[in-house]
């Protein structure tokens, strides 16, 4: 199946599923992932791991901190690993994530002052010292 993750005003990331390669989509439903209607982005790595970058804040239009990257090894059913990228006061938003092999590159707005860039591997995220 193919999955689409969506930002919403319900305090959670929403999802829709397709069983025909994206020609048609099922009903949109809430996931367990909190989000304050801020930007999200996800990528699937060569080994099947899905990496998702988002603000895990359930208050609609709430603060855009922290910014985290979460991993799923079951195609988005669960997200057991979450590493904090930023958690200081400020705004960390509009993330973008791409993958090449086992590496991911993440860019995001840093306090509305500049663009931040992080490059890491899945192993780096698994061994992250700042898990939420």
Identify the notable features of this structure and list them briefly:
about 130 residues; mainly beta; four-stranded antiparallel sheet; three-stranded antiparallel sheet; about 5% helix; globular
Task: Summarize the structure in short.
The chain is mainly beta.
Sheet with the most strands: spatial strand order = 4-5-6-7
Report the principal-axis shape: globular
Estimated structural class? mainly beta
Number of helices: 1
Mean pLDDT: 94
Largest sheet: 4 strands, antiparallel
Give the strand content.
over 45%
Count of strand segments: 10
**Share of helix among residues?**
under 10%
End-to-end Cα distance = 29 Å
What does this entry look like structurally?
A 4-stranded antiparallel β-sheet has the order 4-5-6-7. The protein has 132 residues and is mainly beta. The protein is built from 1 helix and 10 strands. Strand 1 (2-6) and strand 2 form a beta hairpin. It has a domain at 38-126. The model has no long low-confidence stretch (mean pLDDT 94).
């Amino acid at each position: 199946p193919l999955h689409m993750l969506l930002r919403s005003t319900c305090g959670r990331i929403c999802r829709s599923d397709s069983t025909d390669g994206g020609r048609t989509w099922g009903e949109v439903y809430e996931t367990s992932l909190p989000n304050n209607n801020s930007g999200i982005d996800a990528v699937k790595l060569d080994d099947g791991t899905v990496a998702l970058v988002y603000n895990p804040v359930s208050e609609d239009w709430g603060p855009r901190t922290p910014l985290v990257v979460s991993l799923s090894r079951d195609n988005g059913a669960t997200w057991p690993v979450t590493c904090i990228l930023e958690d200081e006061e400020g705004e960390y938003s509009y993330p973008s994530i791409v993958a090449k092999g086992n590496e991911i590159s993440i860019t995001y707005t840093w306090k509305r002052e500049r663009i931040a860039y992080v490059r890491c591997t899945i192993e780096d995220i698994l061994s992250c010292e700042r898990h939420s």
